[in-house]
Design brief:
Strand content: under 5%
Structural class: mainly alpha
Helix content: 40-55%
Radius of gyration: 22 Å
Strand order of the largest sheet: 1-2
Pfam families: peroxidase
Largest sheet: 2 strands, antiparallel
Family: Belongs to the peroxidase family.
Organism: Tagetes erecta
Number of strands: 2
Subcellular location: Plastid, Chloroplast thylakoid lumen
GO molecular function: heme binding; peroxidase activity
Shape: globular
Distance between the termini: 67 Å
Length: about 350
């Protein structure tokens, strides 16, 4: 079987991927958020919350307090989930699902931008400077002085897609505008997911339904849980310094290795990120394979892409992107949450 570039299937197969409505995400989040379905026959509700739900919240809160107070573990190690925490998690989860739906629609209409979106996310992130703890995925690539640098040539259209998506997302956000730093990384995630789905469809002979079933059964959707949690980056207000990002299409393998080492990674991570290093993944891998430190990993991931599940490749790629996407960033886990209407318990009939 010939070598497979997972980007090579996009132009013909991505448009066949299932369309996601604006009310639900094509890529569901499966990282333990609590989903409470409110259904109390339409009666005895306050601001859409039924009495049964309120009683459950009271019961859960009391139980958690009892567990915490009776635990032999010191109190400062015990994290008690309260109603506000659960509400914020649900708000962020719902918002992120809507974002992914918007991005999926935009990417489906512009499959040729998948490769630039991946490089856009990488180049925004690898400005990170470990000694000074500056740079990183902070949205600095949005500035004209940075996007116009030689290493970012060809990425303007991808940035324009992000900017258009941001306008739509901000229009329905209840918790304030989304940061460029978050959106650029989420766009890369959506681009990867679309590509993995397209690959599954290709392996099923172009059958969309079977491809979706294959990806649902063997894909690594659950691996995205930690990536989704790193949601709440802040945008910088100035471009990052020049000279921190190689021109991947012109850089030698040693220069690529040196850059990855400088941000805390090695040959393995360089090999798995081959799709982010230029528009032609196989050409990039052929170049990387000339280096003995990188070649074994290139071969490993090429073999993995030929399998049904692509597990080794997909899991390592998601893990590496997750780490790169938060280099040097302090995540605000309360970002995009917003106050909810207060309940008037005097109107509640128990």
């Amino acid at each position: 079987m010939g070598l497979i570039s997972f980007l090579s299937t996009i132009p013909t197969l991505l448009p066949n991927a299932p369309f996601s409505s604006s009310k639900s995400s094509t890529y569901p989040i499966r990282h333990g958020t609590i989903n409470c379905k409110i259904d109390d026959g339409g009666s005895n509700e306050i601001n859409g919350v039924g009495r049964r739900d309120i009683l459950k919240c009271f019961g859960a809160a009391i139980s958690l307090e009892l567990v915490a107070s009776s635990s032999p573990i010191p109190s400062h190690f015990v994290e008690v989930a309260n109603a506000a925490d659960l509400i914020q998690r649900r708000q962020r989860s719902d918002f992120q699902s809507s974002i992914k739906s918007t991005l999926y629609t935009a990417i489906k209409a512009n499959p040729e931008l998948i490769s630039p979106l991946l490089t856009l996310a990488l180049n925004d992130a690898v400005t990170y400077d470990k000694p000074t703890k500056s740079g990183g995925p902070n949205g600095s690539i949005r500035f004209s002085s940075e996007i116009s640098r030689p290493e970012n040539q060809g990425l303007s259209a991808a940035l324009s897609l992000v900017e258009e998506a941001k306008k739509e997302i901000d229009s329905y956000s209840k918790g304030g505008p989304i940061s460029y730093s978050d959106l650029i990384q989420l766009a890369a995630q959506s681009a990867l997911k679309a590509t993995f789905l397209a690959s599954a469809i290709r392996k099923c002979g172009g059958n969309e339904e079977k491809g979706n079933l294959l990806y649902s059964a063997y894909g690594s959707s659950g691996q995205w849980g930690l990536f989704d949690r790193q949601f709440g980056r802040s945008d910088t207000q100035e471009p990052d310094p020049e000279g921190r990002v190689p021109d991947w299409t012109k850089a030698s393998v040693q220069e690529m290795k040196d850059k990855f080492i400088a941000i805390g990674f090695g040959p393995r991570q360089l090999a798995v990120m081959s799709a982010f290093l230029g528009p032609d993944q196989l050409a990039t891998e052929a170049k990387l394979a000339t280096d003995p430190d990188v070649s074994k990993w290139v071969e490993k991931y090429q073999r993995s892409r030929e399998t049904v599940s692509q597990t080794d490749y997909e899991v390592d790629l998601i893990t590496t992107l997750t780490k790169i996407s938060c280099l040097g960033q302090t995540i605000n886990y309360e970002a995009y949450s917003y106050p909810v209407p207060k309940l008037d318990f005097s109107k509640l009939k128990l």
